Amino acid sequence: MPLPNQRSLSLLSSPPRFFAGIGAVILWTALAFCAPLSADQASNEPIYQEQLLPLLRTYCLDCHAVDGDSEVQLDKDQSALQVQQNRAFWNHVVTQVRSGSMPPADGEVMDAANREKMLETIEKLVNSVDCVQQANPGKVALRRLNRIEYRNTIHDLTGIDYQPSEGFPGDDVGYGFDNIGDVLSLPPLLMEKYLDAAETITGQAIITPLAPRLWEININPATIDNAKKYVRQNGLTLASRGTVTLNTEIPFTGDYVLTMSASGDQGGDDPVRVEIKAGKFQTIVDVPSEAPENYPVSLSLKKGKASIDLTFTNDFYVEGKVDRNFHLHHLHLEGTERQPAKMPPLKLTDNHRKIIFAVPSEKLSAEDATTQVLSRFGSRSFRRPITKGELDRLSKLAAQVRSEGGSYEESIQVAIQAILVSPHFLYRVEQPGKGDPEAPMPLVSQFELASRLSYFLWSSMPDDELLRLAYRGELRDPEKLRDKIRRMIADPRAAHFIENFAGQWLQLRNLDRVQPDTEQFPEFSDATREQMKRETLLLFAEVLRKNLPVTTLLDADYTFLNHDLAKFYGIQGISGDEFRKVALADTPRRGLLTHASVLTITSNAGRTSPVKRGKWIMENLLNTPPPPAPPNVPELDKSELSGTLRERMEQHRANPACAACHNVMDQLGFALENFGPVGHWRTHDGKEKIDSSGKLPDGTEFNGAADLTNLLTHARREQFVRCLAEKTLIYAVGRGTDYYDRCAIDEILAKIEDNDSRYGDMVFAIIASDPFQRVGSRSND
Question: What range(s) does the Cytochrome C Planctomycete-type domain occupy (predicted)?
Fold first, then answer.
């Protein structure tokens, strides 16, 4: 009976709810297991049985069989289909075989031809995809702007350099980068921070008319002049004609309101009447209610001392029948500063004028001016034309502010605050292209492509030129696109790509956290830390902006130094604080492997670490990260190790569980041993002469940094170039790569191979690739 195909297995795992009873289950199972193999699966089965399985028996199954002791069981999957369904496991096997970790040194020797045959066979079974019929550009999750992108976008949009405070939650990292959509969540605390930030940013960007000063005071009637004889439990009671006086200091000339909370014992034909007098002002207030109510009186008062008299004027008394009295429970005085008839013009900033380019006038209503301002600002904020519905809602919000007494500028402030907390600003929202949304690989829209470009190369919003090209539908014109990319790379804003991509790919951000032993290295300081980082970033910038071969990063015979860093390296003849290009002809240094930045982040506080350095090379230059240490391996007792560093590492590798990875990591790290914990050149470690030789499990030998560099730029050149292409693609599209991305990466590499694999060409090829230009699915089927 043929095996079930993959779709049948997935259906079998969760049959529809309407199948009920044992008969239905039997029928469902029979249908699933009788389904025929697909053509691909049928053709792959002989590959597994006749090609892969014999290799596994020869080189692997002595240790990695189901009936053995190892947790890694290579014969657990017994068909091509099962191998494909266990893709993550077999991709890990590929990594171990390619790196030379497997087979181990004490196992069956695998020659280069069989190693390559095993790799090709597993790759074909696990990751094979028809790049024409089954092409999939992948799909990016709805992606929030990270902290750096948010800061840069706010600056380009408003001119305000708003630095998210320490209260902003940090951005999570995925696949080595902090711009991955899958991990950029929006917790409630961050939303609160965005609300606060929007208010701060608009307050700095937009100048509003100086608001009149406000003042208020609450008064207990028992404390005013002449009140003592009228005090009762609930305030003052004037039982006969009498006057009490409020004396207070008025802070500014303005319009005031005195509010009495009062009531009266009524009697006769008239209500209780109170005369209010302040200077020349005089008025009568009727108090007809026997329950306390508020009675406001408007006053014009000048700055300085003021006396306000309250007089009960119409006492009425008939013994045993009527007694009219006035009760005063509370007083409240509030005022608004009177503005001069002609206000001085506002001192507007360039940021203000950039945002509010239209103001109400005799020829332009406030509504029309608002529409113009919010239409442009909203379109730039959302990185695409604002819709009529969005604009109408924002305009109504601004109109409401004006109806409540706010100025035109304040109404724009409030509307822009709403824009800055909108999902269409905080997130990069993408939808299938309008051309054919049902197509297998629809294009992203022109505006979404503009955003992908700008956030890739600038970590910020598209500029006006990009948006114009998108509006005209010209962004996919090859000549215009290449010209724009060239100018974007030359633009100062490309420094954000250099710092954010290179800083994370090469882990330069870790320099901020490492703490070398300052007793051993007193010359190391925070300034040195920044200079180390800058040297590496300047080399990366040189390779990018001059479109140099990517291998220049590894074998450049020059670097960038200022006086202090040159002195740190022991290089003479460099003066001044400015960094400049310096030849390394007479030094042992070449490329970023000998940069103090890389050497420091891969060391311990007081000694080098071949393990860390080897792991760094495997992860960042060869894209073969070692797996975590097995959970059942006990912690190494360092007290049992003795001898030189190399001898101690050899004792460490004596444990078979450790040897598989350390046979590669340690050897790569040994090649850099001539460079100390903070990057100084040395020939001895204490009294011991340094041995910087290494030998990989596949027999490759090297001695020192120069040999290692030669290995990476020649024998492992394709692996390094592919690694950099994949890392750059991950950063560019904001998602991790999957097996189907191999089609795009192969095409990218093919486009640049004939021109020495130059980095500028690689960037353009990535931008022109399907993962960057199109939207697919996230399926791993």
Answer: 60-106
